[in-house]
Design a protein that fits this description.
Number of strands: 36
Helix content: 10-25%
Radius of gyration: 32 Å
Number of helices: 8
Oligomer: single chain
Largest sheet: 8 strands, antiparallel
Length: 625
Amino acid sequence: MNVGKQRSGPAGRSVMALSSNGYKPQPGDVVKSPLGYGRETVESIVVAFTLALLFRAFEAEAFVIPTGSMAPTLMGRHKDVVCEKCDRDYRVGCSAEEDDQSQSLRSQQSQLTRELADLRTQAKNAQSPQQREAAQRRVEILESDRGPLAQIRTRLGSKLVPATRCPSCGYAMRLIEDAKGVDQPLHYLPQYPSFNGDRILVNKFIYDFVEPNRWDVVVFRYPEDAKTNYIKRLIGLPNETVSIVGGDIWTSQNAEPPRIARKPVTQLLAMLQCVFDSRYLSPELHQAGWPLGWIPWSPPAESATGRWTTADSGRSFACSPAAEAATLRYRHFFPTAQDWEAVNAVLKKEPAGALPFSIEIQPALIDDFQPYNALATRSHWVGDLAVEMQLENRSAAGTFSIDLVEAGQAHRCTIDLAIGAVQLAIAGQPAEDSPQARTPLHGLGSWRILFANVDDELSLFIDGVKVEFDRPTAWSRSIESAQAIRPTEVAIAPGTMQSSDLSPVGVTAVGADLRIDTMRVLRDIFYIGAHDIGARPGELIERQLLEFPLEEDQFFVLGDNSAASKDSRLWVEGYHVNRELLVGKALVIFWPHAVPAQWSIPLTIGGSQVRLPAWPNFARMGYVR
């Protein structure tokens, strides 16, 4: 069957140029080739592929987050964990199990395993006793307790995360199965699979038109190896000096005094990290007599009328109208491994009924504990706090106030529930200078409230909307005073009016009928002033003040997971990123790991384990803040 070419004439007839029936094309026929029917489809695919390549090269590109240096904003390879004691869900980083060294070790392990199999075959089929003996000697070396295979298994085992600690109740959960033999590799428990990092889309074109902003999450080529892409948060801008003091960022230009760098609203909310959530309380801790985080703060001798009460073991509280103030305060109790041993001992003796705890319990300062990190680091007190709760007003009268304590100084927000008027009291400022505003929070109803003291500024959000005040809600202090700030570690008794960082959050009602629940205490990111890495795992060499002067077209970047981020603080060959190394701005998390079904089945594909079926993780999809 012969295929002709296309031609046209005045007759305009369309025929197929097939000579099998003896018909020959005539002048004026439009002769069509059979290949023309699939040509448009092929061309469309080629054009689409070309456009995708152009889009990738010039506009946007997808990246996979490999490590946890930006956690919890962006997740590297990690595990999703649910606490066995309080049901709190959180994530644990496990990037080391797939780093370059681990992959090299697995390659060596595969080579040695193949060699071992070949040697056994040689020993079995050897033509001479000498060959058999040589093969058996090599087999014995490879299989010995201290042989190369055992050493590789040990090194790979050290890359696994053996246990994790719940950020709510402090319970330590084991993630690794008990070894079945000295020659068997360690394995994770099947209910804790590892997932790859977030997949994000990066705008590679944006900084050709606009200047990078502080707090942007940026992708750049690593200054010490331009072939490697890094992702961090942009902290310092050209021609300024960046300082890290007390966990905060300070900046200065032209020899002016440094000023604290405040986060925009979007970044402020996105970067808060939860340290307590009243939805996740351990029944075993409560049964053993462990104190509640939130407790009524009225003096013990005071009448119970109007006091805050709980009917669900501290998950929610209510108070009825009373002339005197009813106060509820939060104290941070974070059980240690020794505390959990004592709890288990108490419950073993008396398995039923609430019991007085046998050891003296003291509240702790809120610190920068990060459950994502496998390696523990030195803790740092965090004074920038926020509190969030659902408030139900069951009357149209009274006042409700929230206070946050930092370094023994209380900042307060007071709401008139009859008219919705709000007044802030900033510690150390005259009452006549108090910022004021009107809000929709009045009358009967329910609202979600968040009150924050972050970066020397007070912020109030009602149902996710920031309240605008009639004057600034921020205050100024010198960087020298920031270096001198210390927490007030005074364990005060209920009813005491003294402010202490051991009871840093409080709510007070006067003449109001209220109910609050889903209370969350949150903290700001604490940037560690680390300038070097110590000899012990997780050890950082710190200074109280770090300064980094930047020149034209130089930027300073930090990871949100400050204790586990190799960023501008710790680079050997300079601490800045030149403008030409910027790749783009992180836009969206378009594909976090899928969520396996409870009845999913683990499958190994290409050396990696997946669980099927699994559903898209819509909860983590969204803009990178």
